[in-house]
Amino acid sequence: AQTVTQSQPEMSVQEAETVTLSCTYDTSESDYYLFWYKQPPSRQMILVIRQEAYKQQNATENRFSVNFQKAAKSFSLKISDSQLGDAAMYFCAYRKGFGTASKLTFGTGTRLQVTL
Amino acid sequence: KAGVTQTPRYLIKTRGQQVTLSCSPISGHRSVSWYQQTPGQGLQFLFEYFSETQRNKGNFPGRFSGRQFSNSRSEMNVSTLELGDSALYLCASSLALAGDLDTQYFGPGTRLTVL
Fold it and tell me: How far are the Cα atoms of A31, A34, A60, B28 from residue B21, in angstroms, in the given order?
């Protein structure tokens, strides 16, 4: 069974600084997708960024980027120029490749605090 | 385009009762998945529906059931409620097409409290 591990329960970053959230996963599949979702206090789960395993290039979305190390099964999220609105729970998630059921397996989450 | 909507947003029930939660996916999305979120167990997959058929099921007792209608709207039902069923229930929809088009987008959730 696939597992997703987030070893940092809490992280803190100052506004305008950069922070990296860690995620490792375990799978025997070769085709899969990885995601970072953000859950602010409103509890709405918001997609931050996604990465296809077959793509070697790391995904980037504005201030958010990932460091995808397939051999090491590592998928970290870097947030640059942190803003107060980035404060939230961040979940790393895994899904098998298309053609199978779309079940997401989540990590336990990292709570990110952003300070002035 | 409207996002995923869930109703009701909050619900209080007592043990032994049953409850039905509703989810309307993003227009055009064909797959609906349900997740349970609790402080102790985190986010756990309940089931997924595609074209009115359950395509995958998580490790939950038979008290948890669901269905999907022809317009892709989905409902989940929990019978004989237990205290441990208190949770945030999240619904997610996707186009269920290849690649990026299979990304799941979540609704705001239904907060269920069982007394």
Answer: 33, 28, 36, 21
